């Protein structure tokens, strides 16, 4: 194959996103689906993923920051948007004006949201209401309101009508990717208790707690809304097999091949030496493009119909593949990870991390992003 590719390219298959969202929605038939597109859609492009996710059946989109949500709204995304973590400087008035649901974890945050709603009334009219999802910390000990402060938060939120409307209570799981972990049931129990307290305070909120892993393994925790992230990108957080399709492929192409005799060494530091005459293929991607240097000597690529080892050090801009007695043609496609090639998960396992980190780190100025089936 001799197509011309950019030096380094991530190809995002939007049909995979649609497929994955539809699959996840079908696993949680009683709930609505919020596709999580924070961090620029886990490195896949927030707006393109958002559109594909909506086509796949998502009726909500989740972002971390208000800025991410506002960018989607201003680009014409019409579904419910929810954003959950900002700095104390964040201004909630635009969230109200642009119809974005926000998270509240403390009385202090509640006061800032109420203030935003009040100011939004000044420019968008008396009906401006801030839709709030109160977050209970059920055991992740990250954001969220500790149980001891929950009754006061619930009461204050209920009293802030009609400037704010509590539409949901929600939480986040610590160990959902380890099905059977006792913390999951413990968190579920605290979530139930928090719900009872909210009901007793006169609220009638939706509930949501399930990330991808819980969508796939804990139907009892689907409640009204599920919040899958990683699985919509086709990466499975739990060991169970599933029909998820990875959306991201990282690829490059062969720019040079050469024959070297047995005994010649390769790349900086001469960490690899040919044990027989062999053909090397030069690929113009390196650690500046997202190929971790620590994978030097322990990664494969997919090239000319099979997996082949990267030999010697990964450089800033290039790496070298041992092709034995094969001679791939110049311009041959090289898959670093994704469709047909090694998986992002394989990289993550070798690096002692998770595939979330691999794909989110692919947003780089030198790496082209291309969409398959964009706009369809
Ligand atoms: C990132 C995130 C999710 C999605 O988690 P996945 O493990 O990617 O499915 C859901 N909810 C919150 C609050 C998050 O921060």
How would you portray this structure in words?
With 376 residues, this protein is an alpha/beta fold. It folds into 2 domains: 14-233, Alanine racemase (TIM Barrel, Alpha-Beta Barrel); 248-372, Beta Barrel (Lyase, Ornithine Decarboxylase, Chain A, domain 1), CATH 2.40.37.10. 30% of the residues lie in helices and 23% in strands. It has helices at residues 14-27, 38-43, 46-56, 66-74, 93-97, 107-124, 150-159, 182-200, 212-217, 344-351, 355-360, and strands at residues 9-13, 32-36, 60-63, 80-83, 100-104, 130-135, 164-170, 206-208, 225-226, 248-253, 256-260, 265-266, 272-273, 278-283, 300-303, 306-311, 319-322, 333-337, 368-372. The strands form 3 sheets. Strands 11-14-17-16-15-18-10-1-19 form a 9-stranded mixed sheet. β3 (60-63), α4 (66-74) and β4 (80-83) form a beta-alpha-beta unit. α1 (14-27) crosses α3. The radius of gyration is 24 Å and the shape is elongated. The mean pLDDT is 95. The structure holds pyridoxal-5'-phosphate.
């Amino acid at each position: 194959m001799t197509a011309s590719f950019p030096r380094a390219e991530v190809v995002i298959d939007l049909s995979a996103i649609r497929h994955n969202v539809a699959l996840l929605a079908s696993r949680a038939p009683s709930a609505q689906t919020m596709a999580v597109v924070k961090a620029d859609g886990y490195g896949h492009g927030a707006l393109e993923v958002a559109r594909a996710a909506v086509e796949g059946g998502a009726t909500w989109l989740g972002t971390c920051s208000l800025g991410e949500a506002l960018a989607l709204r201003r680009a014409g995304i019409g579904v419910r948007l929810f954003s959950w973590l900002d700095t104390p400087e964040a201004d909630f008035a635009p969230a109200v004006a642009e119809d974005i649901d926000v998270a509240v974890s403390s009385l202090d945050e509640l006061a800032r949201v109420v203030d935003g709603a009040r100011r939004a009334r000044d420019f968008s009219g008396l009906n401006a209401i801030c839709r709030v999802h109160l977050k209970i910390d059920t055991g992740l000990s990250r954001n969220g309101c500790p149980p001891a402060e929950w009754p006061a938060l619930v009461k204050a939120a209920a009293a802030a009508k009609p400037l704010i409307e509590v539409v949901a209570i929600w939480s986040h799981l610590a160990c959902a990717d380890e099905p059977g972990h006792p913390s999951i049931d413990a968190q579920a129990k605290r979530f139930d208790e928090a719900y009872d307290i909210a009901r007793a305070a006169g609220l009638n909120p939706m509930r949501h707690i399930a990330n991808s892993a819980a969508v796939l393994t804990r139907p009892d925790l689907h409640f009204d809304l599920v919040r899958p992230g990683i699985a919509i990108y086709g990466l499975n957080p739990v060991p169970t097999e599933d029909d998820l399709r990875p959306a991201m492929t990282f690829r490059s192409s062969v720019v040079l091949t050469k024959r070297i005799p047995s005994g010649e060494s390769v790349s900086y530091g001469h960490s690899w030496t040919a044990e027989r005459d062999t053909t090397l293929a030069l690929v113009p991607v390196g650690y500046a493009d997202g190929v971790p240097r620590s994978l030097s000597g322990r990664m494969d690529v997919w090239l000319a119909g099979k997996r082949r080892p990267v030999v010697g050090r990964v450089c800033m801009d290039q790496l070298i593949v041992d092709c034995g007695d094969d001679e791939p043609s110049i311009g041959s496609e090289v898959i670093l990870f994704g469709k047909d090639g090694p998986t992002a998960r394989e990289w993550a396992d070798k690096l002692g991390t998770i595939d979330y980190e691999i794909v989110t780190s692919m947003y780089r100025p030198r790496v082209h992003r291309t969409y398959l089936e964009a706009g369809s």
